[in-house]
């Protein structure tokens, strides 16, 4: 039986070179507040036992922004990929039992109304991992969710590693996952970095788990705005527009 504790890991170690700024990506403002703060507000609504933020680039500038939030910091001294970033939290969670929700600090539009059903479905199914995916006919540079012949999730392939055929898949990975803790860190120990970016991908845990005979669950969303990650100033401008539209419709 899965534990009912919840820990959240927010990935916030990257520089965000495409932002063309020395400011860490997660500190760029949206509606006057850092991107990371929007994500923190969203996950706090889930009342997690623990919130861990993985910091790296200019960590000393990121930490003060989180003052007032009940967070812990773990440091990724080398940016070697999302899987490597999550590995840095293993020691801090050594005595924790339960589920681990992982998301990125540059996704400011993710809502508790989406995260909460993801967590509830994960627990009801007792899946080792439940991921949030996007079903869309619009072409995106996200990783693709590759399903097996029986319709179950088999693996995730990053856009840069995808074959032309895999790029025709219209189910995209959001970068939001809920894992049973012990399964997460066991799977992370089995991943490598033989890929286009020579990084340890968190997405590779999916194939590690399925190869072990366990079934991954995917919950689909049709709202691309929620999983919109900020990678450039153009993205930030788009997010401002989406944020304003959401505010006016609420």
TrEMBL record:
Q: Which reaction does it catalyse?
A: alpha-D-glucosamine 1-phosphate + acetyl-CoA = N-acetyl-alpha-D-glucosamine 1-phosphate + CoA + H(+); N-acetyl-alpha-D-glucosamine 1-phosphate + UTP + H(+) = UDP-N-acetyl-alpha-D-glucosamine + diphosphate
Q: What class of enzyme is it?
A: transferase
The record, for Gene3D superfamilies, names:
Spore Coat Polysaccharide Biosynthesis Protein SpsA, Chain A
Which Gene Ontology terms cover its molecular function? glucosamine-1-phosphate N-acetyltransferase activity; UDP-N-acetylglucosamine diphosphorylase activity
Q: Which residues form the MobA-like NTP transferase domain?
A: 8-132
What residue range is the signal peptide? none
* Keywords assigned: Acyltransferase, Nucleotidyltransferase, Transferase
Instruction: Quote the Pfam families the UniProt record gives.
Output: NTP_transf_3 (PF12804)
InterPro entries attached to this UniProt entry: GlmU-like, MobA-like_NTP_Trfase, Nucleotide-diphossugar_trans
UniProt EC number = 2.3.1.157, 2.7.7.23
Cited function: Catalyzes the last two sequential reactions in the de novo biosynthetic pathway for UDP-N-acetylglucosamine (UDP-GlcNAc). The C-terminal domain catalyzes the transfer of acetyl group from acetyl coenzyme A to glucosamine-1-phosphate (GlcN-1-P) to produce N-acetylglucosamine-1-phosphate (GlcNAc-1-P), which is converted into UDP-GlcNAc by the transfer of uridine 5-monophosphate (from uridine 5-triphosphate), a reaction catalyzed by the N-terminal domain.
In the record, the note on similarity to other proteins reads: In the C-terminal section; belongs to the transferase hexapeptide repeat family.
Q: What name goes with this protein? A: Nucleotidyl transferase
Q: Which species does the entry assign this protein to?
A: Nitrospina watsonii
């Amino acid at each position: 039986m899965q534990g009912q504790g919840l820990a959240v890991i927010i990935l916030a170690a990257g520089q965000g070179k495409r932002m063309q700024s020395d400011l860490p990506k997660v500190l760029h403002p949206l509606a006057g507040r850092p991107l990371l703060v929007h994500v923190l507000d969203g996950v706090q609504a889930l009342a997690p036992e623990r919130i861990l933020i993985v910091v790296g680039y200019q960590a000393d500038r990121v930490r003060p922004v989180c003052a007032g939030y009940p967070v812990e910091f773990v440091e990724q001294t080398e940016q070697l990929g999302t899987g490597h970033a999550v590995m840095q939290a293993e020691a801090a969670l050594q005595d924790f039992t339960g589920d681990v929700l992982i998301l990125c600090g540059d996704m400011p539009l993710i809502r508790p109304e989406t995260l909460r059903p993801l967590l509830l479905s994960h627990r009801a199914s007792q899946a080792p991992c439940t991921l949030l995916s996007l079903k869309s006919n619009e072409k995106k540079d996200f990783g693709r969710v590759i399903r097996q012949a029986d319709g179950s999730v088999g693996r995730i392939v990053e856009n840069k590693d995808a074959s032309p055929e895999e790029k025709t898949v219209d189910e995209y990975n959001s970068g939001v996952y809920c894992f049973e803790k012990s399964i997460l860190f066991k799977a992370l120990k089995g991943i490598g970095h033989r890929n286009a970016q020579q990084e340890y991908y968190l997405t590779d845990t999916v194939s590690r788990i399925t190869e072990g005979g366990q079934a991954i669950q995917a919950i689909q969303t049709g709202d691309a705005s929620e999983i919109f990650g900020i990678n450039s100033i153009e993205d930030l401008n788009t997010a401002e527009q989406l944020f304003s539209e959401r505010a006016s419709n609420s």
